[in-house]
Design brief:
The chain is globular and about 55 Å long. It is of the alpha/beta class and 284 residues long. Strand 5, helix 4 and strand 6 form a beta-alpha-beta unit.
Amino acid sequence: MTNNEIEFEDIIGRYLTININNESYRIYVEESGAGIPLICLHTAGSDARQFRHILNDKKITANYRVIAFDLPWHGKSNPPEGFETKEYKLTTILYKQIIMSFCKAYNVNQPVIMGCSMGGRVVLHLALEHSNFFRAVIALEGADKLEPYYDLDWLYRPDVHGGLVQAAFVSSQIAPQSPDNFRHETLWHYMQGGPGIFKGDLYFYWHDGDFDDRSSLIDTKKCPVYLLSGEYDCSCTPERTLATASRIKGSKATIIPGTGHFPMSENPELFKTYIYPILDEILG
């Protein structure tokens, strides 16, 4: 193959550094397209590779500047200096600080923010607290109240392969109809996670992120809220998504048949048929 025959993807990757509470975080970010900023937040224990199908979709990138970044400790983003002396634990406060600091450093104006799983939870916090900043929020597999249903101690044991057990835990959350190649790609991201990172993320997801007592205060006239949940999601179940929607007046909830907890990566073509109308509505 000659150089003239190489087809590069449109995704551009680069690094930036943000500072939070006197600590520096080197962040890896990928983007594609032009128009309204669309910031994408990955799931617990994974990274922004989950959104490659959105970054590469020309129908989306014709109107949206898609931006997906790896949280610190995840993917190609570094943990802060001295991480080896601390236990990683993602709190609601730190999570929001990272996102808002990234948005400020990246100089985005009235972005749409779309997160999945723990990312889907935190965007609801942002809709409440930063309704004047975000154009809209899209919560994929996100709810304002969740209950743990497996033992987190398995996620950080020296006698257990962390990557394999992480993939085993989340494999049950992928729909049986999802194509095998995308299923295994989604699981591969979990197999590569750093030690203790998935467990640290789940502190926010299972415990610290609950705010069902305040979600009813979200003003969807200022910041529209869209919730999507996979039919086969046994973590943020359709019932939990619909219960959240009932508390957020004016939110729009959709249950996607034939998919699970990772719609954008486990079955991207099916997911796009549901996200296109939402993005068109926001654009309009």
